[in-house]
Amino acid sequence: MSDQFVDAAKERMGAIERLLKGLPGVKGYVDKELRRDADKQTRMLLAQQLESEKQDLLAVQRTLLNGGGLMWLDDVDQSVTKLQILIDRIKTASYGYAGLFDAVRIRENELDALNKFDQAMAARTVDIQMAIDNLGKAANGTGDIGDAARKLTALLADLNNLYSKRYEAMLSPQLIDTPGYMDDVQAPDVPQLPAQPQASQSPAQPQQPVQPQQPANPQPSAGGTQPGAGAPTQTPQQS
Prior knowledge:
The protein is mainly alpha-helical.
């Protein structure tokens, strides 16, 4: 059982990382002229992923309809409707020229907040896909349909609220500084960029013991001979 949880966690992390690769990241929001394009790229990618997930949910709906799961169709219908509304919200967002789109320069904490929003939304988008997959398994008789449907509904509400908060922050960036505003944005299991290795992590060179310095050609004592020499060493002339 534990191996199944580990495999599911690895699958989730891999899906989140693949989705994050398509996002512009922090660098996309730095330049005012590119900020709007970066936001649109993020929204269109998430909307595209959610649209694909909606098709999977419709397939689950057909399975329930054909398999005698009529008592759960209302719950699934509501999830389909909520998902479509969320997709439309994300795709058609209009900010005008206000907030972060009007600022020539964007503060570091604002960049950090936007990055957290995007990462958290990507993670929840993947969670919705996994919830739909679990609902599909339950519809085929390998799980509790009611529990799977409730989890999906909760995830859709969570992503909708998260997107609303991101939208508000784009229009009124001062909200980012409000205590507690970002507390539920940074998901602890959103993958982060690997930390750069610290200098201390490189193999340290062992310190060599200090040896007394020896002259390259040691001078023998006056009148002496060098070891192995056949003739006496010439001594300096006395004045």
